[in-house]
Amino acid sequence: MRRLTEYSAGVGRKRVAQNILRLGANVADAETITIGRDVFEMDTNSTSTAGNIAVNVSGNLTPTLAGPLIVAAINTYNTQKLVAVQIAVGVIAVYGNEPTAGLPALACTETLAGAGNAWDAAAMYGSNAGVVPQTVILQRAAIAAEVTEGNAYFFLPFTVVSAICFVRTSAGVTKAWDGAVSFTGNRVKMDNAGSTDWAATDVLFCLASG
Question: CA 189 → CA 73, 88, 116, 150, 162, distances in Å?
Fold first, then answer.
Protein backbone atom coordinates (compact mmCIF):
# COMPACT_ATOMS: atom_id res chain seq x y z
CA MET A 1 0.00 0.00 0.00
CA ARG A 2 1.32 3.41 -0.90
CA ARG A 3 1.65 6.00 1.81
CA LEU A 4 -0.59 9.02 1.55
CA THR A 5 2.44 11.26 1.11
CA GLU A 6 3.61 9.20 -1.86
CA TYR A 7 0.15 9.15 -3.41
CA SER A 8 -0.19 12.88 -2.87
CA ALA A 9 3.11 13.53 -4.63
CA GLY A 10 1.99 11.35 -7.50
CA VAL A 11 -1.24 13.17 -8.27
CA GLY A 12 -0.28 16.68 -7.14
CA ARG A 13 -2.20 18.92 -4.79
CA LYS A 14 -4.20 22.06 -5.38
CA ARG A 15 -6.81 23.76 -3.24
CA VAL A 16 -8.44 27.14 -3.04
CA ALA A 17 -8.50 29.69 -0.22
CA GLN A 18 -11.69 29.96 1.78
CA ASN A 19 -13.46 31.64 4.68
CA ILE A 20 -16.92 31.46 6.24
CA LEU A 21 -19.04 34.50 7.13
CA ARG A 22 -21.74 33.81 9.71
CA LEU A 23 -24.82 35.94 10.26
CA GLY A 24 -26.47 35.20 13.58
CA ALA A 25 -28.44 38.44 13.80
CA ASN A 26 -29.73 41.29 11.64
CA VAL A 27 -27.37 43.53 9.69
CA ALA A 28 -27.73 47.33 9.80
CA ASP A 29 -27.21 50.32 7.54
CA ALA A 30 -23.55 51.35 7.02
CA GLU A 31 -22.12 48.12 8.41
CA THR A 32 -19.34 46.71 6.23
CA ILE A 33 -17.87 43.38 5.17
CA THR A 34 -14.32 43.59 3.83
CA ILE A 35 -12.45 40.96 1.80
CA GLY A 36 -9.02 42.15 0.76
CA ARG A 37 -9.50 45.38 -1.16
CA ASP A 38 -13.28 45.01 -1.58
CA VAL A 39 -15.55 46.70 0.98
CA PHE A 40 -19.22 45.73 0.88
CA GLU A 41 -21.48 48.20 2.70
CA MET A 42 -24.97 47.43 3.92
CA ASP A 43 -27.21 50.18 2.50
CA THR A 44 -30.81 50.98 3.39
CA ASN A 45 -31.09 54.53 2.05
CA SER A 46 -28.80 54.84 -1.01
CA THR A 47 -26.12 56.73 0.92
CA SER A 48 -23.17 54.34 0.94
CA THR A 49 -19.60 55.56 1.28
CA ALA A 50 -17.85 56.45 -1.97
CA GLY A 51 -15.65 53.60 -3.14
CA ASN A 52 -17.57 50.94 -1.22
CA ILE A 53 -19.74 48.33 -2.92
CA ALA A 54 -23.31 48.99 -1.81
CA VAL A 55 -25.50 46.03 -0.82
CA ASN A 56 -29.12 47.17 -0.87
CA VAL A 57 -30.60 45.52 2.22
CA SER A 58 -33.50 47.93 2.68
CA GLY A 59 -36.29 45.88 4.24
CA ASN A 60 -34.05 42.78 4.15
CA LEU A 61 -31.95 42.96 7.32
CA THR A 62 -32.43 39.43 8.65
CA PRO A 63 -29.89 36.65 7.99
CA THR A 64 -32.49 34.89 5.86
CA LEU A 65 -32.98 37.90 3.57
CA ALA A 66 -29.64 39.72 3.77
CA GLY A 67 -27.54 36.59 3.21
CA PRO A 68 -28.51 36.03 -0.45
CA LEU A 69 -28.04 39.76 -1.17
CA ILE A 70 -24.51 39.67 0.25
CA VAL A 71 -23.74 36.53 -1.78
CA ALA A 72 -25.01 38.19 -4.97
CA ALA A 73 -22.97 41.34 -4.35
CA ILE A 74 -19.76 39.40 -3.77
CA ASN A 75 -20.28 37.29 -6.89
CA THR A 76 -21.17 40.30 -9.05
CA TYR A 77 -18.79 43.00 -7.90
CA ASN A 78 -15.71 41.48 -6.24
CA THR A 79 -12.39 42.23 -7.94
CA GLN A 80 -10.37 39.25 -6.67
CA LYS A 81 -11.78 36.18 -8.46
CA LEU A 82 -13.85 35.15 -5.46
CA VAL A 83 -16.99 33.04 -5.32
CA ALA A 84 -19.63 33.27 -2.60
CA VAL A 85 -22.24 30.61 -1.84
CA GLN A 86 -24.86 30.37 0.89
CA ILE A 87 -24.41 26.99 2.53
CA ALA A 88 -27.23 27.49 5.01
CA VAL A 89 -29.23 30.38 6.43
CA GLY A 90 -26.69 32.75 7.93
CA VAL A 91 -23.69 30.76 6.65
CA ILE A 92 -21.86 32.24 3.65
CA ALA A 93 -18.77 30.57 2.20
CA VAL A 94 -16.32 32.66 0.20
CA TYR A 95 -13.51 31.01 -1.74
CA GLY A 96 -11.15 31.67 -4.61
CA ASN A 97 -12.18 30.20 -7.95
CA GLU A 98 -8.51 29.73 -8.86
CA PRO A 99 -5.99 28.09 -6.50
CA THR A 100 -3.26 30.64 -5.88
CA ALA A 101 -0.66 31.22 -3.22
CA GLY A 102 -1.75 34.86 -2.91
CA LEU A 103 -5.32 34.42 -1.69
CA PRO A 104 -4.50 33.27 1.86
CA ALA A 105 -3.16 36.79 2.52
CA LEU A 106 -6.55 38.39 1.89
CA ALA A 107 -7.74 39.92 5.17
CA CYS A 108 -11.39 39.41 6.11
CA THR A 109 -12.93 41.94 8.47
CA GLU A 110 -16.37 43.33 9.26
CA THR A 111 -18.12 46.00 11.30
CA LEU A 112 -21.24 43.89 11.87
CA ALA A 113 -22.59 44.62 15.36
CA GLY A 114 -25.14 41.83 15.61
CA ALA A 115 -24.43 38.88 17.89
CA GLY A 116 -22.83 36.03 15.96
CA ASN A 117 -22.11 38.16 12.89
CA ALA A 118 -18.46 37.46 12.11
CA TRP A 119 -15.89 35.73 9.91
CA ASP A 120 -14.54 32.37 11.03
CA ALA A 121 -10.99 33.60 10.46
CA ALA A 122 -9.21 36.95 10.07
CA ALA A 123 -7.95 35.98 6.60
CA MET A 124 -8.66 33.53 3.79
CA TYR A 125 -7.19 30.16 4.73
CA GLY A 126 -6.51 26.68 3.37
CA SER A 127 -4.97 27.43 -0.05
CA ASN A 128 -1.85 26.29 -1.80
CA ALA A 129 -0.57 26.38 -5.37
CA GLY A 130 0.04 23.37 -7.60
CA VAL A 131 -1.00 21.51 -10.71
CA VAL A 132 -4.62 20.75 -11.41
CA PRO A 133 -5.40 17.12 -10.55
CA GLN A 134 -8.65 15.20 -10.48
CA THR A 135 -7.71 13.52 -7.22
CA VAL A 136 -6.21 15.44 -4.33
CA ILE A 137 -5.25 14.83 -0.73
CA LEU A 138 -5.73 17.93 1.37
CA GLN A 139 -4.68 18.55 4.93
CA ARG A 140 -4.86 21.53 7.26
CA ALA A 141 -5.28 22.33 10.92
CA ALA A 142 -8.80 22.79 12.23
CA ILE A 143 -9.61 26.32 13.40
CA ALA A 144 -11.45 27.21 16.61
CA ALA A 145 -14.59 28.41 14.83
CA GLU A 146 -14.96 25.04 13.10
CA VAL A 147 -14.79 23.27 16.45
CA THR A 148 -17.48 25.57 17.83
CA GLU A 149 -19.76 25.18 14.81
CA GLY A 150 -19.14 21.47 14.42
CA ASN A 151 -18.46 21.64 10.67
CA ALA A 152 -15.37 22.02 8.49
CA TYR A 153 -15.24 22.52 4.72
CA PHE A 154 -12.77 21.82 1.93
CA PHE A 155 -13.21 23.53 -1.47
CA LEU A 156 -11.88 21.84 -4.60
CA PRO A 157 -11.20 23.16 -8.13
CA PHE A 158 -13.52 20.49 -9.58
CA THR A 159 -16.87 18.84 -8.90
CA VAL A 160 -16.39 16.19 -6.21
CA VAL A 161 -17.71 12.69 -6.92
CA SER A 162 -16.14 10.90 -3.94
CA ALA A 163 -14.45 11.91 -0.70
CA ILE A 164 -12.85 10.25 2.31
CA CYS A 165 -11.86 12.18 5.44
CA PHE A 166 -9.97 11.41 8.60
CA VAL A 167 -8.37 13.22 11.53
CA ARG A 168 -5.07 12.98 13.36
CA THR A 169 -3.74 14.75 16.41
CA SER A 170 -0.94 17.32 16.23
CA ALA A 171 1.37 14.56 17.41
CA GLY A 172 0.54 12.50 14.31
CA VAL A 173 -1.75 9.93 15.94
CA THR A 174 -4.86 8.96 13.97
CA LYS A 175 -7.96 9.99 15.89
CA ALA A 176 -11.11 7.90 16.22
CA TRP A 177 -13.24 10.63 14.66
CA ASP A 178 -16.64 9.21 13.72
CA GLY A 179 -18.46 12.18 12.20
CA ALA A 180 -20.05 12.22 8.74
CA VAL A 181 -18.57 13.20 5.36
CA SER A 182 -20.70 14.70 2.60
CA PHE A 183 -20.05 16.64 -0.60
CA THR A 184 -21.98 19.05 -2.78
CA GLY A 185 -20.59 20.50 -6.00
CA ASN A 186 -16.95 21.38 -5.34
CA ARG A 187 -17.05 21.32 -1.53
CA VAL A 188 -16.58 18.57 1.03
CA LYS A 189 -18.09 18.85 4.51
CA MET A 190 -16.80 17.12 7.64
CA ASP A 191 -19.11 17.28 10.65
CA ASN A 192 -18.56 16.54 14.31
CA ALA A 193 -21.86 14.73 14.79
CA GLY A 194 -20.24 11.59 16.16
CA SER A 195 -19.15 10.77 19.71
CA THR A 196 -15.47 11.58 19.07
CA ASP A 197 -14.80 15.08 17.73
CA TRP A 198 -11.78 16.97 16.47
CA ALA A 199 -10.19 19.82 18.42
CA ALA A 200 -8.49 23.02 17.29
CA THR A 201 -5.11 21.28 17.68
CA ASP A 202 -6.06 18.44 15.31
CA VAL A 203 -5.25 18.11 11.60
CA LEU A 204 -8.03 17.40 9.10
CA PHE A 205 -7.43 15.29 5.99
CA CYS A 206 -9.59 14.98 2.88
CA LEU A 207 -9.06 12.70 -0.11
CA ALA A 208 -11.36 13.94 -2.89
CA SER A 209 -11.83 12.86 -6.50
CA GLY A 210 -13.58 14.56 -9.39
Answer: 25, 13, 21, 10, 12
